[in-house]
Amino acid sequence: QVQLVESGGGLVQPGGSLRLSCAASGFSLDYYAIGWFRQAPGKEREGVSCISKSDGSTYYAESVAGRFTISRDNARNTVFLQMNSLKPEDTAVYYCAASDSSAYACYDPRLGYDYWGQGTQVTVSS
To answer: Does 1 have pLDDT greater than 90?
Structure first.
């Protein structure tokens, strides 16, 4: 069964850190582009970060660049999102997704993601 499972969310104070995990089963993540997305209440889903299928290059949305780091551990079939210096505006449900296409860059909205996790809540509040 193909599945993505996120974990690591929670409540953290502003300035704190969290590390999200995205564990895959039923397929190997190293053959896929992996994206992290988030959706806050009343807002559209937005791309946060991604790692490409072809060369492992990474991309970050401007709002998180310098604070978030995406990484892949092929041996554990898991992708991580290290989030530092968290802000209240980072509060959202975070989703990971996988795409086996290389037709577009991982951050390109035209790239379709085939598999999605169920999401993990991140709340940044004092």
So the answer is: no
